[in-house]
UniProtKB/TrEMBL annotation:
Record-annotated membrane-spanning stretches: none
Species the sequence originates in: Novosphingobium arvoryzae
Name the record gives this protein: 3'(2'),5'-bisphosphate nucleotidase CysQ
Keyword Transport: no
Assigned keywords, A-Z: Magnesium, Metal-binding
UniProt signal peptide: none
InterPro entries from the UniProt entry: CysQ/Inositol_MonoPase (IPR050725), Inositol_monophosphatase-like (IPR000760)
Length: 247
């Protein structure tokens, strides 16, 4: 399908997939150090995504982790929010738990989006939801593999949940979508580009998505800092929120 005739969700998925392929090609060249590889990957994917969106959706706003913020976006009801490489460290270390995020927020809500997991050959999308597999008897919680949050560890202990360390935010959120985990609880700092595409995909799959006080995630803010979120099956949300309120 010609990109000019794609729906917003189709475009998000297409761009995330192509950016993922570009990133794999950059990594496969094998000529850069780990640090340089991360920078080259970020720059390559960002250039592709931003140029494509400005050409194909010129009237929409744009927010990317890898570009200086343009506050003109605040006047737009439609804003694309992208993270060219979510999990730069994991990408550079040739792990699979990194992602590409492409999302469209409309009036602050994460409406359309795609999360590519190039290392796993997957693109999860808001326009192609699939049933989330049932939870096992013992719940599984994904946490940061390098900086697991104290709040998440406390909730995991209270629920007797298995803790699964994992890299990028997108990889952790998609683990819940895929039924590989049951709860993704994050505190301690993120930005809009870290969660917008994962939130759009998770919501489309019928999952609970909120801040850790239960309020909705609201995007296209002047301050893009969004330090916490909870993604899980609806039946697990209130027990987790209750435990968080007790901390």
């Amino acid at each position: 399908m010609n990109a000019d005739h794609m729906t917003d969700a189709q475009l998000a998925a297409h761009l995330a997939e192509v950016a993922g392929r570009l990133l794999l090609d950059v990594r496969a060249a094998g000529v850069l150090s780990l640090k340089a590889l991360g920078k080259a990957g970020d720059a390559t994917a960002n250039q592709f995504l931003c140029h494509a969106l400005r050409e194909l959706r010129p009237d929409d706003g744009l927010l990317s982790e890898e570009e200086k913020d343009n506050f003109d976006r605040l006047a737009s009801s439609r804003v694309w929010i992208v993270d060219p490489v979510d999990g730069t460290r994991e990408y550079g270390e040739e792990r699979t738990d990194w992602a590409v995020h492409v999302a469209l927020a409309i009036d602050g809500r994460p409406v359309h989006g795609a999360v590519a997991l190039p290392g796993a050959g997957l693109v999860l999308r808001s326009d192609q939801p699939a049933p989330v597999p049932p939870a096992p008897d013992r719940l599984r919680m994904v946490v940061s593999r390098t900086r697991p949050a104290a709040e998440a560890m406390a909730v995991a202990a209270a629920l007797d949940a298995e803790v699964i360390p994992m890299g990028s935010a997108g990889a952790k959120a998609m683990a819940v979508v895929l039924g590989q985990a049951d709860i993704y609880l994050h505190t301690g700092g993120q930005y809009e580009w870290d969660s917008c595409a994962p939130a759009a995909v998770a919501l489309a799959h019928g999952l609970h998505v909120s801040r850790i006080d239960g309020s909705p995630l609201v995007y296209n803010q002047a301050d893009t800092y969004m330090p916490d979120l909870l993604i899980c099956r609806p039946q697990h949300a209130q027990p987790v929120l209750d435990l968080l309120a007790q901390q």
